[in-house]
Amino acid sequence: MSSFQSITLATLTKDIRLEWRSKDALNSMLFFSLLVVVIFSFSFDPVAEESRHIVGGLIWVAFLFAAIVALNQTWARELRNQVLDAYRVSPAPANGLFLAKVLGNFIFVSVLEALMTPLFIVFYNLRALGPAWQLIPLAILGTWALVVNGTFFAAMSLRTRNREIMLPLLLFPISIPALMGMVQATTAILTGENSARFWILLLLTYDVVFTTACLALFEAILHAE
Amino acid sequence: MKRAFPILAVLTTAFVLYGFYLGLFVAPTERTMGDVQRIFYFHAPSGWTAFCLFFVNLIASVAYLIRRNLKADALAVASAEVGVVFCTVVLVTGPLWARPVWGIWWTWDLRLTSTLVLWLIYVSYLMLRRLTNNAQTPVLAAVLAIFGALDVPLVYFSIWFFRTQHPQPVIGGGGSLDPRMLHAFLINLWAFSCLGALVCWARYRVELMHREVEEAHALESLLDVVPKSEVEAKPAQRGSLQ
Fold first, then answer.
1. Partner-chain contact B135 A225, CB within 8 Å
2. Which of A131, A159, B128, B214 lies at a 20 to 30 A Cα distance from B233?
3. A194 part of contact set with chain B, CB < 8 Å
4. ipTM score here?
5. Which helix (H) or strand (E) holds A200?
6. pLDDT digits (tens, 9 = 90+) for A182-193
């Protein structure tokens, strides 16, 4: 196993084990998105016809806000005991660490989505009129789009003064095309009015472009002095 | 270079005033839209200048990441700030024109929305610069500038596709363009480009001076323990640390 793989695997298993024992991020994300579901339901009447058009936006906004909770905690753990400084002086590949963090967040947010989606279906009486299987590649690509840039910007905002405020300020403007892709594709699948193919392709492009950019520039961020 | 600035400033001011004169008095009134169409002579050149400045910002950011030259970083700050100002001008003059012509202040049309998203991206860039005042700021900002630039085509395509599914507002019909209108437009395009370059240059110089002052302050606090006369006797020391 190369050092890249072993670093990635070690960090990933460590993060998953920590999360499994504490369940801090997952619990707070779940409760947070539950609150969003309930609060949004007051702002409009969730009738089936109506909600099909709105829920695509709602579901992804809820996941985006909830993901911020997990993303903000990603690196905070490594700041304690100067783990990140140790990383900087070690010859370990920086991208291994980054990829492990992205995969970890991807798993946490995916679990959140798997648990929250049934709730959305029940609360808003949803039934897809379009090809429902497309929701699965859409969810994978959309979650990756949020998580890869989110993890990167979380590492960037570590160096700023109000760390927790900075992450959404950086992440949201850049995520606008991805968010638009997720929302429009979900609406297209739920209403069955038009095809979601363009949006899924857009998300794929977004993922490829920004994953490459993150991997190319993460080292500069980690070693920024 | 220092002496050139007032001369260039006077020339640019004259140029911009000439552009205003052409746009407001010489160019004929548009038949359907009336006088409000004249805002176009300032709206489009501002947009052009803003896009150019954002492009300069990208080049300067990439140059900084490669060379780690602090002058490139100063240029990145200057171009982003001035670019945001010109982009704000675009976003303000647009609705002023749209209200009488389209009957609405704002519509989520392709160009409006992508300009707004571009503005948001660069405001977040400036926020990042503001909220990190340490040695790492240039690297973080340069990285964010590259991310923003990568995002622009994606924003454009997503909104383009989104909007093709929806009715579009009608933009002024065809017909031939009066040569005086074209002249006024081109003069203003150049005048605004010069203005943008001038302000960006001024801001760049201010940024460099600001950094010099900061360094001098840092040095002064370091040398505080040494008697003043001794510091003055060694001016070379100050230069070597810059």
1. yes
2. B214
3. yes
4. 0.86
5. helix A197-222
6. 998 998 888 888
Report residue B151 as tokens: 């995002």
Where does chain B have alpha helices with state H?
A: 4-21, 40-67, 70-102, 110-131, 137-164, 179-222, 228-233, 235-240
Q: Smallest Cβ distance to A161: which of B121, B131, B147? A: B131
Q: For residue A179, give both structure tokens.
A: 């968010």
Q: Is the pTM of this model over 0.80?
A: yes
Which residue reads 């690509």 in tokens? A141
Q: Which two tokens stand for residue B43?
A: 């709206």
Q: Kindly state the tokens that stand for A147.
A: 């998580």
pLDDT tens-digit map of A114-140: 999 888 888 887 777 878 888 899 999
Burial of A139 (0-12, 13-18, 19+ CB in 10 A): buried
Q: Do B136 and A224 touch (CB under 8 A)?
A: yes
Cα–Cα distance, B42 to B64 (Å, whole number): 32
Compute the distance between CA of residue B210 and CA of residue B197 in angstroms, rounded to an integer.
Answer: 20
How far is Cα A45 from Cα A102, in angstroms, rounded to an integer?
37
> A139 CA to chain B: closest CA distance, Å?
18
A180–B158 C-beta distance less than 8 A: yes
